[in-house]
TrEMBL record:
Annotated organism of origin: Ahrensia kielensis
Matches recorded under InterPro entries: MurNAc-LAA_cat, N-acetylmuramoyl_amidase_3
Name of the protein this chain belongs to: N-acetylmuramoyl-L-alanine amidase
Keyword annotations: Hydrolase
Pfam entry (one): Amidase_3
Length: 412
């Protein structure tokens, strides 16, 4: 009994410390702290109650496929854990995270179409907290879709004004005279990506790798390496593409470590873009990656497409040639140091590779669904070898493509 009491006391202490650290972090960064979330109701109506440590402003959005309630805030700290066993109503899932350095988002997935009947915001003077209570009622698909479109129109100006803030780095990157490679660590923020058998998160692995690769380029000084994100933030796919173009990039490398059903499949893979997938694995990976915006609560259907004229088509073809050239170089170098998947250069319709004027590849370092790959991905010594091989591939590509490799050789 004494032992049980000691364990109970220890657990209380740990909980108190964790809660205290979370609150301290929020206070230190001067952002509001989300304290709790409660979901209750029945099949026809339900309510969501969110408690914060201070007043917050919120903008709601509706998205379908699946039906979602998206709540946008300025940057929040998150101090709650959600036990869905206590839920009632027609909400099926909840996730939350940072969309950028200045914005956060909470998303509720629903089992059926719905409408927002009422939103109440109130200060709770008794305990110095702030509540948001959203009352939802069951609806039908047509009514939901009409409300969603109306909501998009209402928020259109706000979305255009704040779009540049999504990026984890400067929205107006400095154009370098050096050969420029944009390194894109996949996922981030609310989108964790794949999760390994030992709970390794893809978003953390690829960010660490991208930083190590950038450090290698920075140390050598002949390649300008820019990260699409250098922290745990969410960036929509289209913004990653646009950032590479705004940076006048000579090469775009999206870095991933996905998960697939066939857990026996392992090894690195290099992907280029194609309307038709080279195989079922490539198709599955592309489909998964292209859902990143959905996971982050972004409706990408209204994203503008590039002008489909003859000049754009010619640019795409030339760019694809460069992309394939780099993919072959990367495969050749990578297979010197690590296991590769069968037919390691594959292709599929990855949205993040669609820039018409920037050679682009997606590199799967390995698959977190495979135990051996997961172990490898967490080893700094293995990552260092792969960093070296990719860096050498980039340097060789710059030479072959006639791009600028060093400012020292330029005539000012």
């Amino acid at each position: 009994m004494v032992f049980v009491r000691k364990i109970f006391a220890l657990l209380l202490l740990i909980g108190w410390l964790i809660g205290g650290l979370t609150v301290a972090y929020a206070q230190h960064t001067n952002v509001p702290l989300a304290l709790s979330a409660k979901v209750e109701g029945g099949d026809e109506d339900m309510s969501i109650t969110l408690i914060f440590d201070r007043k917050v402003d919120m903008v709601p959005q509706l998205l379908n496929h699946p039906w979602r309630l998206v709540l946008d805030f300025e940057r929040l700290g998150f101090g709650f854990e959600i036990d869905q066993k206590d839920w009632s109503g027609f909400a099926s899932d909840m996730r939350w995270g940072d969309m950028s350095d200045v914005n956060s988002r909470i998303i509720f997935e629903m089992d059926k179409p719905f409408r927002i009947a009422e939103i109440k915001a109130q200060e709770n003077k008794g305990n110095d907290t702030f509540s948001l209570v959203l009352s939802l009622k069951q609806s039908d698909s047509d009514t939901f879709n009409a409300a969603m479109i109306d909501n998009m129109r209402t928020n259109a100006v706000v979305q255009r004004d704040t779009k540049s803030d999504r990026l984890g780095v400067s929205a107006k990157p400095v154009v370098s005279k050096k050969f420029t490679v944009v390194l894109d660590p996949g996922h981030g923020g609310i989108d964790s990506g794949a999760v390994g058998r030992h709970q390794t998160l893809e978003k953390e692995i690829v960010l660490a790798f991208a930083k190590e690769l950038k450090a290698r380029f920075d140390a050598e000084g002949n390649v300008e390496a820019i990260l699409t994100r250098d922290s745990d933030v969410f960036i929509p796919l289209n913004d990653r593409v646009q950032f590479a173009r705004q940076s006048n990039a000579d090469l775009f490398i999206s870095i991933h470590a996905d998960s697939i059903r066939e857990n026996y499949v392992r090894g690195a893979t290099v992907y280029t873009i194609s309307d038709k997938a080279s195989d079922s694995v490539a198709a599955s990976i592309a489909e998964s990656e292209n859902r990143a915006d959905e996971i982050g609560g972004i409706n990408f259907a209204d994203e503008p497409e590039d002008v489909a004229d003859i000049l754009v088509d010619l640019a795409r073809r030339e760019t694809l040639g460069f992309s394939v050239q780099f993919a072959r170089l990367a495969v050749s170098k990578l297979q010197e140091e690590t296991k590769m998947i069968n037919n390691p250069h594959r292709h599929a319709g990855f949205r993040v590779l669609r820039a018409p004027d920037v050679p682009s590849v997606l590199i799967e370092l390995g698959y977190l669904s495979n135990a051996e790959d997961e172990k490898q991905l967490t080893q700094a010594s293995w990552r260092a070898k792969i960093v070296n091989q990719i860096a050498e591939s980039v340097s060789r590509f710059a030479e072959l493509s006639g791009r600028r490799l060093s400012v020292a050789n330029e005539k000012e």
